[in-house]
Amino acid sequence: MKPVNDIYSDLKVNADYRYDNFRIEEIGSIKRIAEDSYLEAPVWVGGDAKFVCLFIDLDNSSKMSFKKHPKTMAKIYDYFTQTLIDVLSQEGIEADYIDIKGDGAFGIFEGDNASFRALSAALTFGTFFKKYIRPKFQDDEHVFNFKSAIHTDKLLVKRIGKRGSRNNNEVWAGRLVNNSSKLATLSKEIYDIDRDFNPSTGGVLVISEPIYQIYRTKHEFAIMHCGHDLSGNPQPRSELWRRIDTSNYDYVHDDVAYYAPGLWCDICQDTVNEGLLA
């Protein structure tokens, strides 16, 4: 090992070089951040291109982990997170980039249909969670639930670490992932103010105002209710999304967000999905 002061000197030279030569490179595809050429270089990738992020995370997992055996929590994390990755990898709705964050994961989508692929993935996971994950792990001590959100924005990201090793990972500095995760935390506020939504009956999907405006371009499938309630009973068609004023929530970037049940209708799911992805 070098003398400690020599280590300090080398660290400062390297850090100052990165600081003085910092630049942002415009990218058109999220897949470029996987290139090793960005490792150890003072280059972040971003620019004016906008991408879509679907963020999904376990809700109140810290309370669960405090009460449950570590082996049990590991099995829950594996079942939840790997299933989420599998959904984000499904052909036709696959994310262009997937990363793990906390007790969940997020997918970055690009292209003309990005927002609708993200919506399809969100509803697919939400429905699977209700049908299979919750019944498997629900107990009497707490509500087993998840939170989710979709947002579109510019990104700013860099892989930080050492080239030629596995010790590197992405650092997301832009608003895309950060705002998506913060929108997802609105689920707690929604459960408090809207009695039609309950964490014990299903997850809530939150979307930002820009995403809502994109969904209006496929109004029939992305905005309107299919005509059945969650039990499959016929009901008058109406708008699916409800509006929440977020101007008083400092942690949310925009003043308005929208939310809806993050579930497919068992009767109409394939028809609606085809309409979203067409």
CATH third-level topology = Alpha-Beta Plaits
Largest sheet: 7 strands, mixed
Morphology? globular
**How confident overall, as mean pLDDT?**
89
Spatial order of the strands forming the largest sheet: 4-5-3-6-9-11-10
Low-confidence stretches: none
Number of domains: 1
Helix-strand makeup class: alpha+beta
* Count of runs of 4 or more consecutive helical residues: 9
**What would CATH call the class?**
Alpha Beta
CATH-defined architecture? 2-Layer Sandwich
Could you tell me how far the N terminus lies from the C terminus, measured between alpha carbons in angstroms? 60 Å
Report the β-strand fraction as a percent range.
Answer: 15-25%
Q: Rg to the nearest angstrom?
A: 21 Å
The tally of strands reads 11
CATH superfamily descriptor: Nucleotide cyclase, GGDEF domain
Q: What is the chain-wise order of helices and strands?
A: HEEEHHEEHEEEHHEHHEEH
User: What share of the residues lie within helices?
Assistant: 25-40%
Written description of the protein model:
By secondary structure, this protein is α+β, with helices and mostly antiparallel strands. It has one domain (4-277): Alpha-Beta Plaits. 38% of the residues lie in helices and 23% in strands. It is built from nine helices and eleven strands. It has helices at residues 4-20, 61-67, 70-88, 114-137, 175-184, 187-193, 209-215, 219-223, 269-277; strands at 23-26, 43-46, 50-59, 97-101, 104-109, 145-154, 157-161, 168-172, 204-208, 242-245, 256-261. A seven-stranded mixed sheet has the order 4-5-3-6-9-11-10, sandwiched between helices. Strands 1-2 form a two-stranded parallel sheet. A two-stranded antiparallel sheet has the order 7-8. A hairpin with a 2-residue loop joins strand 4 and strand 5. Helix 3 packs antiparallel against helix 4 (114-137).
